[in-house]
Specification:
seven-stranded antiparallel beta sheet
Length: 121
């Protein structure tokens, strides 16, 4: 059985111009760089003073891992269940596992519908 673990903090998704203020000392942050942008997902309490854009009000959970790279469709199945229940997501993947962020007001409903679908919380 796949288990999900709720994260204990509120999260913010940001667009930033510089890596200088990334909160390296916090428990959770995820940084992404593409040819178009620098994105940061971090604990709301640690959002840098300077952001180009930000959206607060996210909560998250992770798939208990680490997950083997040969596993197929886990994120797809989870996000499909959430989509079928009208819950939008922001996904972050790391080497060990996947994280799913939902708006704070949807967290209880998200975990409930996933539990009803057979996932351990």
């Amino acid at each position: 059985m796949i288990r999900l673990e709720k994260l204990p903090y509120e999260l913010t998704v940001c667009k930033i111009s510089s890596t200088a203020d990334i909160p390296l000392g916090t428990d959770f942050f995820f940084f992404g760089k593409t040819d178009e942008e620098l994105s940061l997902v971090c604990e709301t309490s640690a959002v840098p003073a300077r952001t180009d854009a930000r959206e607060d009000g996210w909560r998250g959970f992770r798939i208990a891992g680490p997950l083997d790279f040969s596993l197929i469709g886990i994120l797809s199945k989870l996000t499909g269940i959430l989509a079928d229940n009208g819950i939008g997501i922001f996904a972050v993947s790391t080497y060990n596992t996947d994280y799913i962020l939902v708006k704070a007001g949807d967290l209880d409903k998200a975990l409930s519908v996933l539990a009803q679908a057979g996932y351990g919380i």
